[in-house]
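Quick illustration, no need to memorize.
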Amino acid sequence: MNEEQAPEKKDLARRLLSFFPAIAKPEYKHGINTKLKWTGIALLCYLLLSWTPVFGVDREASFEQFRFLEIVLGSKFGSLMTLGIGPIVTAGIIMQLLVGSKIINWDTTKPEGRKKFQTWNKLLGISLAFLEAIVFVIAGALPVTGGAPIIVAVIFQLALGGIIVILLDELVTKWGFGSGISLFIAAGVATQLFIGLLSPLAAGGRYAGGIPGFIFGLLEGNSYSAMIYLIPVITTAVILSIVVYVQHINVEIPLSFSKIRGFGRPWALKLLYTSNIPVILTAALLANVQLLARVGTHITPEGLTCGLLGCFDQSNNALSGAVYYLSAPGGGSVYNSFLMEIITGTLIHTEVFRALTYMLFLVIGSVIFSVFWVNTAGMGASTVAGQLGGAGMQISGYRRDDRVMESVLNRYIPALSVLGGIAIGLLAATADLIGAIGTGTGILLTVMIMYNYYEQLQRENLDEAHPFIRKLAGG
């Protein structure tokens, strides 16, 4: 048997993954209606599982302290979607660090290297689903109502939910639009935005929605209360506008067809070259740090819950330690944000330093992950130049040579990966500090995700699409 006829030798990860379900790739390219159908099915499954409670968890438990984790991880505590995208994103972070630092020497610019990366990333994600489920239960994030058998059952349900998310992400990636990770984050944040802007329900003496709170404040003649409710609505609108504007900042590279003179098109290299991936990975890393801070804690005589990374009060707000300086001022509440502390005159000097460290963490983390993502996701100058050359294109004004295109692209792509990481980190941190509804990170991610979906729709053949979809995409 010659080399071409020899069966493919599977590595350890592929052999182990053969015991788990997987989503097969479609055999032919689907139309827009099919893609929308499978994207909708994945989203519906995610929403249904988000409202399916975990058996063995206290139904009366409050998970208010985990609202930030729910947004950045696309999760809902107490349900089968408690882990959300945490396992798969954490696996991505670990693999990015290992490959980016050359601890694992895989050439991800080649198909075989990318296949290895994706295979081990999935296997690590499944492993982390079980590990994170154990950590959530041990840390007391989900109060279990029973003994050892119930604890085991809860861990299994949480891990199963994490594995289902991995499969749903595969389903969206292969059969639908974009990625499941982005879709689930957007769905979770959109729910929070709807409640934070429009819900008339009140809890703890405060309206859930900023707009109803503003209206009722005016009707009651309490202008101060009305202003407090209005500020988060204004900051949310400002962040929305800024993100949409930044999305349009780009550098245009003129391309032409080498075999057809006079035909070409501009290619836009965006400032946010790596899109929302860096801030997703940074926020997930931050979420994992906050979870680890609750492992191995003890109660002090003052009633504080303290661990290796810091202390929490009875409302689970960070009070000291590393976890304090890696969280936004105000505990994530839009009505206790850094900006609100300035307006109400309650700002203290430690909160200023806390805001700076939080911003630096998001910016530096976003830059690191942006650079790593360019190098591992086939977005580097050499890979892109090879793709353009393979498509029969060249940069106008330069001779057709992949090395020439690579040298031109090297003027822009490395710089854009760094500047884009800085920009998205600053936007996310600023939005958190001024109290945008849905958290700054969440609203930033959602706007970018929806904008990316809009761009993908524009690139699709819309002839068979519903008239509403054609109108939405400007077709």
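The beta strands are 202-203, 206-207, 250-257, 264-270, 298-299, 305-307, 310-312, 318-320, 393-395.
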